[in-house]
Amino acid sequence: MTEIRVVPGNIVEAQVDGVVVNLFEGVTRPGGATGAVDRALGGEISRLIDKGYFKGKLNETFLIPTSGRIPADHVLVVGLGKSSEFDLDRVRQVSATAAKTLRRVGCKRIATIVHGAGIGGLEPGAAARALAEGTFMGLYRFDKYLTSREENTAGDLEEVLVVEFDAAKIPVLTEGVERGRIVAEAVNFARDLVNEPANVLTPTEMANRAREMAARYGLEFEVLDREQMESLGMGAFLAVAAGSAQPPKLIVLKYWGTDRSEPPIAFIGKGITFDTGGISIKPAQGMEEMKTDMSGAAAVLGAMQAVARLKPKINVIGLAGCTENMPSGTATRPGDIVRAMNGTTIEIINTDAEGRLVLADCVCYARKLGARAIVDLATLTGACVVALGKVASGAFTTSPEFLSKVKAAADAAGEKIWELPLFEEYRQQLKSDCADIKNVGGREAGAITAAYFIRTFAEDTPWVHLDIAGTARADKEQPYIPKGGTGVGVRTLVELALRDAGQS
Ligand code: BES
Ligand code: ZN
Ligand code: ZN
Questions:
Q1: CA of 418 to the centre of ligand 3 (A)
Q2: Long-range pairs for 421-429 at CB < 8 Å and ≥24 separation?
Q3: Which of 34, 191, 201, 238 has the most CB atoms around it within 10 Å of its CB?
Q4: Do 73 and 87 touch, CB atoms closer than 8 A?
Q5: Residue 439 CA, closest ligand 1 atom number
């Protein structure tokens, strides 16, 4: 477990293994802490710049052995890119790059300055928060099943010291670092869930982990089992669970940050612990990726963990609709008609369009619990990946005001979302001959018709749907996003809750 501490002092004198300093692109004479380290190294950083070996491009690194000139063995210079383009997300990126680079060379203790709080012009508390977020998200790895991990990779960093020269800034930096660490730990909790294989992370195991987390951080926990869902009339959710030997679980987490009479905001996540497609079975190629089809649920559990720790003065409920989607003799068939909790009858054309069925009943349940607004997150459609790639999540809403709040939160959190329309003309594609609605709307506008389906269950409750099919899993490493589960959505939800409470 890596510790992080903000300490007063001069980074040149830090008693650590590695020291991180930075440089904007185009700067020829380093100033501040970088200048101090440069002088202690006899102008070595200046020389690298003069000779063109180091340009300061974003996430560029140069590792300098100090040979005893300062207490640390290594100085890592990290590029910040152009100062005109610098922002909090770049703080996250360079902090992750620096921590990972020094871990790779075997450092156990490192010291860093807060990137961007000086000439970068960022607010110091926000920059410190971004530094901690980037550091802890970047250091994440899922290696519990690698038997001989020690032979292949460096051990963990033990401590990150954030060194600040100006003692007056220490409290605000400490508060920022603490928040950032809580957010990153929530993201990493979600990543662990996403990366677990489906033989381990069954709906029951997901409920167990949610229960443990809730007990640890003081959330109210409840789980609805098959019988309870039957009594509530959740025929859509149960239709997805019908083929599986694993019992479904609807996880309910409640956070009370203000008077219990105040209506809560609800976060809902799609928690398909494995999506085979059911009777409408998926092709074998790449099917293993469908262990990540519970990423929406993971994001909700992660966000609830951070909310419980950051304590915004609002009420929040988190719902995770967990089940496998399996083919079997008891599985739902194409053509089956089922009834959702609100009485709507659904003709199931394709059993692989299961996420919307689970979400339909979860949305009904959130309304029954008195939600004043709903955000759902789901790895819902391949069509959304076609539309937006792996760069942005699709966003859909019945309430432009509510979406603008979610968008502002996503922006601040460094997660990209992009709105797609829900024109009422799309409704036609969901018309069934024999039921109120069908669960697929044909090839055209697949992400939109999926969202439209859920929308009909949200009725008049302000609702935002985020389709994270393209963003929940990364197939290449980025500075603070490792390969595999990304934990996308956690940061947006946490930021939304904090802003809703006026606390960010
Ligand atoms: N879980 C998938 C969507 C998905 C695809 C997530 C790729 C992540 C990456 C979802 O349940 C699904 O199978 N959707 C179908 C819907 C179709 C049958 C209307 C799809 O997108 O093909
Ligand atoms: Zn599916
Ligand atoms: Zn799915």
A1: 21
A2: 421/448, 422/396, 422/397, 422/398, 422/448, 422/451, 422/452, 422/455, 426/452, 427/452
A3: 191
A4: no
A5: 19
User: Residue 203 in 3-state DSSP?
Assistant: helix
Closest CA to 361 of 328, 319, 317: 319
Residue with tokens 């059911």, as numbered in its chain: 278
Residue tagged active-site, from 100, 356, 405, 473 = 356
Residues in the 5 Å CB sphere of ion ligand 3:
272, 275, 293, 355
Kindly state if the Cβ of 352 falls inside 6 Å of ligand 1.
Answer: yes
Confidence class for position 154, pLDDT limits 50, 70, 90? confident
List pLDDT tens digits, range 235-278: 999 999 999 999 999 999 999 999 999 999 999 999 999 999 99
Task: Pick the atom of ligand 1 nearest to 441's CA.
Answer: 19
* Residue at 117: amino acid letter: A
Active site residue 483: no
Q: What is the reported pLDDT for 433?
A: 98
Catalytic residue status for 311 = no
Q: Indicate the Cα dihedral angle 369, 370, 372, 377, nearest 10°.
A: 10
DSSP-assigned letters across all residues of 309-343: HH--SSEEEEEEEEEEE--STTSPPTT-EEE-TTS
Tokens 């607010």 belong to 123
**Whole-angstrom distance, CA of residue 353 vs CA of residue 90:** 37
Residue 118: pLDDT band with limits 50, 70, 90: confident
What region does 210 belong to: left with phi over 0, alpha with psi -120 to 50, or beta? alpha
Q: Is the CB of residue 382 below 6 angstroms from any atom belonging to ligand 1? A: yes
Nearest CA among 400, 376, 373, 391 for reference residue 450: 376
Q: How far apart are CA 278 and CA 478, in angstroms?
A: 33
